[in-house]
Amino acid sequence: MLFASIILERVPLLWHNLLDGLNTWVQNAGAIAFVGIVLVVVARRLHRDLNEFTFWDFGDRLKALVPVLQACVMIAGVGYTAMVLMWTGSRLSLPWVRERFLPREHPMQPPTIGDWILTASGAFALVVVLAPVVVDLLSRIAFGRIWAVALLSWKEAIRGRVIWVFGAIALVFLFAGWFITYKPEDQLRSYVRVVYLSMSLLCLILAGLLGAFSIPNDVENNTIHTIVTKPVEKFEIVLGRFLGYGALLTIGLLVASSLSLVYVLRGVNEDAAFESDKARVSHYGMLHFVGTKSSREGENVGREWSYRSYIKGPTKQNRQPVRQYAIWDFYDFPSEVKARTTGVVFEYSFDIFRLSKGQEDKGVFCSFTLVNPKKKFANMDPSQQSRELDGVLDEMRKTREKLKSAKDKLLEEAAAALATNKQGKSKEVQEKLDEEYAELEKKEYAAIEVEVIQRFQVIHVAAQMVTDFHTQRFTIPAQEFKALTSDAGGKGPDNNLIPAVRIFVSADESEQAQMVGVAAQDLYLVVSEQPFWQNYYKGVFGLWCTHMLVLGVAVACSTYFSGVISLLLTLFYYVAGMNRQYLMQIAEGQVEGGGPGQSFIRLATRMTPSAPVDGTPTASIVQVMDRFFSWWVGRLMNLIPDVNRHDLYQFVANGFDIGWSDLLLLDNGVGLIAYLVPWAILAYYLMKYREIANPQ
Amino acid sequence: MASKEPVVVTRKLTKIYRDFWGREKKVALRALNLEVYRGEIFGLLGPNGSGKTTTIKLLLGLLFPTDGDALVFNMPSGEVQKNERIGYLPEESYLYRFLNAEETLDFYGRLFNLDADTRRERSERLIETVGLANDKKRVLKEYSKGMRQRIGLAQALINDPELVILDEPTSGLDPLGTRWMKNLIIKLRDEGKTIIMCSHRLEDVQDICDRVAILSDGELRKLDSVKNLLEDVMRLELRASGVQLNDELKKDLEEVLAKHGGKLEFIGHPTTTLEALFLRIIEESQAHPGRRYMPDAAPETPGAAPDGKPAEPADVNIKK
Ligand SMILES: Nc1ncnc2c1ncn2[C@@H]1O[C@H](COP(=O)(O)OP(=O)(O)OP(=O)(O)O)[C@@H](O)[C@H]1O
Ligand SMILES: [Mg+2]
C-alpha cells in the first residue's frame, strides 16, 4: 500500500538552528536598514523638505542617545566598507582573504569572520533604525488609542458589509466541495484541500483588500486629518488598522474553519480514515555525512537552492575509495517508543537524482544500518565507524550463521518430535501442532537476531527500495530495538553526548550512477498518532499566518502608496513568495552566469558567454562589483515572503502531525514575526514622515 | 484683554508645494511671521488660495514647513503632544460617515485616552451644545452640511482644548446657525480659550475677531486688531454731501491736501466695513506684488511686540 507522502521542499527552522537563523536575519535586515539610513542621509542633502526626517528625533528627553546612534552608524559603515574591501581583495588574488573573510556561500557552512562582521554591522544599523521605534513604543504608544482605531476598522468593515458578501461567497465555495469526485482513500484529503483552498483564497483577498485600502481611504477622504491632529502617534494608526483587521480575520477564520471541520468530518470512509484521519507524530534525528567533502553537507548536484544534499551510490564500474553515507543521529527516544511492544516504525522519503538518462522511474535500493555507537566502536568518529561497519556486517553474518546452525539442530529435533507426535492425530490437531512448530521456529530465529544485535549493537536493514518522493517505511521488531538501545546514549569520555542510535544510510551498488538526496526531515521515527481535528487547527494556524503576512504587507505598503498600488504590490509579493524557490534559482543562475557586469563586458567585447572574463584590472573590478551585486540580490530575496512555510495543508491532508514547537511555534510563528518586523519598521518611518495633508 | 502670552508663534514660516521629484508647484506661504496670544480670537483672512488653510495645516503638523518654524505652546508643530491641548475643525467635516454622533465623539475621546465616564459625560454635553440631541443616533452620512459642521465642532471640543483652530467655521451654516456659531466662539474665548479661525465671511470676522491677519498670495499683508484696522489714524475720512464728484473737485482737494503735506488717496462713496478695507488691500497687493507686511518688532521677543497697541500710528505701515 502506498503511504501518504509529505514533501517538505525546505528546511524548517529548528530550535537548534535558531541562533543561526537570527544571525542571518540580522545580516539581512541590518543590510537593508543600512541602505535605508544611507538613502535618508543622501536624500536629506538633496531635498530640503526632508528636514523633518531624522533617526534621532527624541526631543529633549533622550539627547544622550543621539551620539550613541551616530556612532552606531559610523561603526556599521566601517564594517560594510571593510567587507567591500575584502571582496576587492579576494578578487585581487589574495586567497587568504577569501577563505577567512568572505561570508559563507551556503547556510550549512560554518560562519566566517566576514559573516561576523556583516552580522555586527547589521546589528548596529538595526539599533539605529530601531531606537526611535522602541522609544516611541515604550513612551508614547498607548494601547487605548490603538484599540480605538482597531474598533473603528472593525465597525467599518462590518458596516461596509464587505464581510457579509465574503461570508456568502465562502459558503458557496465550501459546498462546491460536495460535488468533487475522488478515490475513496482520497476523500478526506480532497475535502481538506477544498476547504483550505477556499478559506485561504477568500481570506487572502479580504486581507489584501482591507489592508491595502484602509489608510489610503483615510487619506483620500481626509478623515486622517481629524485623527492625526489628536495626540495620536501615526504608528498607532498602522498598528490599530493591522490589529483591527487582524482580529476580524482571526474570528472569521475560526468560525469558517470550525464550520468546515464539521463538514470535513461528517462521514469519512474507512480507507480515507486510515490514510488521513490522524496525525502521525514523528521524531527526528540530526543529519550529517561521511565520505563527502564536508560533514555538514553531501554532494551538490547543481540545484543550488535545493535544501537536500546528495550521497552517491557506487556502481560496478566505478567504486569509490570511501563510501558516502548520510547519517542520522537520534539522541533520545520518547518514552512511549522505548516501552513499545509492537514494532518501531521508521519512515523515509528521499529524492533520487540520476547522473545518466533513462530508467527514470525505477527505484534505487538503499541500506539502513542502525548502530548503537556507544560500545562496539573503537572510535566515536563517524567516518572511522563507517569504515569499521563493513567488517562488522561480515562478522555479524558469520555469527548469525553459526547461531543458526546451532539452532537448526534443536529445530531438527523438534521437527522429528513433531512428526512422531502427528501420527494418528485428527486433522485439526495436526494443523495445530504445525502451527506450534512454526511459532517455535519463528521465536527461535527471532532470538538469534536479538542475540546477534546484543552482541554487535547493529541492526542492518538491507536493500530497501526507494522511490522518488514516496514515503516508505521499515519496521524494527520491538525486542530488536530494545536489544539495540538497552544501554545507549549518555556521555562519552570527552563529555560529549553520544547518540542513542545512529543510522547509516547508503545507496546500494547499481548499474548506473545515481544519487540519493536527503534532508534532516526525510527520515524519522513514527512515535504515535494524534487526533485529526487538533492537527486541522494547527493547519489553520498556518493559514492564519499567511493572512497576517498579507495583511501586514498590505498595511505597510499602504502607508506610502495608494490603495490600488498597495494591493498590486501585496499581490506581487505573495505570488513571488509562492515561487520563491524558483526565483532564488534564477537569481543564483544569474550570478553564476557572471552577473550583470561581466555579461556587459562579454557583450561589449563580443565574447562567448562561456569564455572566462579574466586578467585585466577592469575585469577584476567588474567581478568584485558582480560579487557585491550577487550578495545584494541574496539580501533582497529575503524581502520576498516564504509563504510556503505557512502552507501546512499537506500535513493535515496526509495525516502528519504538525509539531507544536518546531513547525508551528518556531517555523510559522517566529518565522512570521521575523518577516513582519522589518515591514513594521518600514511602515513606522513611512507613516511618521509622511506629509499627511500633501499626498503625492 | 489679550494677556500677551504667545500660544502660537511662526517665524519665517514658508511652504512650497513640490511634486514627487522635488519640482516646485506652488509657493503657498512665504516667510510668515505671526504671534497669537492666549485668550484672543485671531482671524486669518484672505482670498481663495491665499494660504490660510496651508498656515493652519502647518500649525497642526499636517504639513511640514519648507523653511522657518511654527511653534505651538512652544513646541515644534511636528510634536504630537501639543495636540492634547488643541481642538481642530477642518475646512470640511472630515469624519467617518458610518458612525453616529455618539460613536464619533466616543472615538475621538478615546484618541485622547479619556476614560469611559468622561467620554460619555462630555459627548452628551457637547451634543447638547451643538444642538444635535435629537439626531445623535443617526449615522453621519445622513447628516446635512450644517449638521456635519456642528458635529465637527463638537469633535474639536471633546478634549476641552486651550487652543481651538477653526477652518471656516461658519461655512454651510444658515444665518441662525452662523449667529449661534459666532456666539459659541465668543463664549469659548470668554472661557479663556484661544481661537484661530479663518473665514471668507468678513462680517463674521469683523463681529468676533480681536485681531486679524490678512494674507494674499501666501504673504502677510496686514496684521492688527480689528478696531485699529477699521479706524486708521494715519488717514483722514472726509464726509461731504451736496457736491457732485468730478475731476475739478478732486484737483482742488488735492491742492488743499498738498498744502498740508497730505495726499489724496481716495475719493468716492463712503464704506466703513471691513469688506472695503479687505478689497483695497487685496487690490493693492495685486498692484505691488512682493511688498510684504512686516510687523515692526521681530517676534523673537514676543513681549516687546507693539501689536495691538491702538494708539501707535507706526502700527499701520503700508509703505507707499
Ligand atoms: N497639496 C497641494 N499641492 C499643491 N498646491 C497646493 C496644495 N494644497 C494647496 N495648494 C495651493 O496652495 C495655495 C494655498 O492654498 P490654501 O488651501 O492654503 O488656500 P486657502 O487660503 O485656504 O483658500 P480657500 O479660501 O479657498 O480655502 C493654493 O494656490 C493652492 O492651490
Ligand atoms: Mg482654505
Quick overview:
The complex is a heterodimer of chains A (696) and B (320). Chain A has 696 residues and is an alpha+beta fold. Chain A has helices at residues 18-46, 65-91, 95-101, 113-139, 143-159, 162-176, 187-220, 223-228, 234-264, 270-276, 335-338, 382-422, 427-456, 478-485, 532-558, 563-578, 580-592, 595-605, 617-637, 649-654, 660-688, and strands at 279-284, 286-290, 309-312, 325-330, 344-348, 351-354, 364-371, 458-466, 472-476, 501-507, 514-518, 523-530.
Shape of chain A: globular
**Beta-strand residue fraction of chain A:** 5-15%
Give helix % range of chain A.
55-70%
Quote the beta fraction of chain B: 15-25%
Q: Mind telling me the CATH superfamily name of the largest domain in chain B?
A: P-loop containing nucleotide triphosphate hydrolases
Distance between the termini of chain A: 63 Å
- How are the strands of the biggest sheet of chain B laid out side by side? 6-7-8-3-9-10
Could you give the order of strands across the largest sheet of chain A? 2-4-10-7-8
| Largest sheet geometry of chain B | 6 strands, mixed
Mean pLDDT across all amino acids of chain B: 83
Distance between the termini of chain B: 32 Å
**Rg of chain B, Å, rounded:** 22 Å
Number of domains of chain A: 2
CATH third-tier fold name of the largest domain in chain B:
Rossmann fold
Going by helix content, strand content and strand pairing, the class of chain A is: alpha+beta
Number of H- or I-type helical stretches of chain B: 9
Described by its quaternary structure, the protein is heterodimer
Count of discrete domains of chain B: 2
CATH architectural type of the largest domain in chain B: 3-Layer(aba) Sandwich
Number of helices of chain A: 21
